[in-house]
């Protein structure tokens, strides 16, 4: 299945629509965000090899969400936050468009969705990475 066709089908699926509804509730609760981040990091441990770049981007995304949940970083549009949370909710769910339990192809939909997310929120992730690199700098003077 072509990646764009798969992505289109995933975005229209009942599974992703359900994740979108849950994202709204999750966004209002810092503990829920942190639990989702923990679950996503645990699942991402299985990403390696060709998916190492996705794992690195996922690490940046989870740091952003942790900083958001703690109130440390809020420079993110609400719509972008909901999109990030919806994709992570979908990602951590074992039952989705292509169930994760299926060998070889089980993560295909998750990977396509993560790649779409990273592309669509690239500017927000870069802005956070810049903020993150500056926040530990102690001004002299």
UniProtKB/TrEMBL annotation:
The keyword Cell membrane does not apply. Its main location: membrane. InterPro entries: DUF1232. It is found in: Endomembrane system. Transmembrane segments: none annotated. Residues 81-116 form the DUF1232 domain. Keywords: Membrane, Transmembrane, Transmembrane helix. GO terms for cellular component: endomembrane system. Coiled coil: none annotated. It is a multi-pass membrane protein. This is DUF1232 domain-containing protein. It comes from Rudanella paleaurantiibacter.
């Amino acid at each position: 299945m072509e990646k764009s066709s798969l992505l289109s089908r995933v975005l229209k699926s009942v599974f992703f629509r359900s994740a979108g509804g849950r994202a709204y509730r999750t966004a209002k609760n810092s503990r829920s965000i942190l639990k989702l981040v923990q679950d996503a990091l645990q699942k991402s441990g299985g990403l390696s090899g060709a998916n190492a770049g996705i794992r690195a981007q996922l690490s940046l995304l989870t740091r952003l969400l942790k900083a958001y949940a703690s109130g440390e970083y809020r420079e993110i549009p609400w719509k972008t936050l909901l999109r990030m949370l919806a994709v992570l909710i979908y990602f951590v769910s074992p039952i989705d468009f292509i169930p994760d339990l299926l060998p070889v192809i089980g993560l295909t939909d998750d990977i396509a969705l993560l790649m779409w997310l990273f592309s669509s929120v690239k500017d927000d992730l870069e802005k956070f990475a810049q903020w993150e690199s500056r926040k530990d700098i102690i001004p002299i003077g």
